[in-house]
Amino acid sequence: xxxxxxxxxxxxxxxxxxxxxxxxxxxHMVKKKRISITADEAELCQLDVDEMYNIILQYQNDGxxxxxxxx
Length: 71
What we know:
Low-confidence stretches: none
Shape: globular
């Protein structure tokens, strides 16, 4: 995966034409999650890095927390 940008521990990633937001969802330990997002959402993130956080919150409000990432 290619990292496009990172801000405040949130990464915007691209892989084979798909976009993802990767973030730490752990409160007391590191627990990385990755959410698949649309190209339009990825473009918003590149225009305003604060949108990365807002998009994660939108997905979480819909009950989508992303897949667990194991290093």
